[in-house]
Amino acid sequence: MNNPGNDEKSTAIHFTPAGAEKMMARLILRSVDEGECRVWIGGRANNGYGVTGGGLTGKRVRLYTHRAAFAAANGGYLPSGVVVRHTCDNRPCVKPDHLVSGTTADNNTDTLERWTSPVAWGSWTGQRGTAHRSSKLNEDKVREIRRRYANGETQTELAREFGISTPNAWYVVNRKTWAHVE
């Protein structure tokens, strides 16, 4: 299913008290308990968040279920521009206790602190070398790869031996990664 037609935080949500009750009933009906979470089993957007239809100002729109759950559980209103964050890091979770409001900056901080995005794994955070979460090499191995390549071993052979991909071996040899290692 495609993402809803509006971005995650752009649309304000305003339920009447009866509408909030109806939305909560729908969310409970279409979700199941999984561990500590209440997971939406209905439609999902490509990004993993649950989506459902909701009537706002007399017309049907697609809503992210975690935003609808937060609004329904907190007086029926969610202002435009407010991000709803998951404390459980489980995108389809609709359990109100796991949802908090915040800003995009708060959400980005959560992502970096809890390693919930591939962006957080790379150099964008300033992590390189052995500090990089998924590093398979260390400085000694990098020096050895470069030395052995200079002595005639192929990048493919070195990649197999060191448990990395051939393109990664190329990056090491050509100092595109591990550039700080002499």
Automatic annotation (TrEMBL):
Residues 64-108 form the HNH nuclease domain. It holds the Pfam family HNH_3. It comes from Cryobacterium melibiosiphilum. InterPro entries: His-Me_finger_sf, HNH_nuc, Homing_endonuclease_His-Me. GO terms for molecular function: endonuclease activity. This is HNH nuclease domain-containing protein.
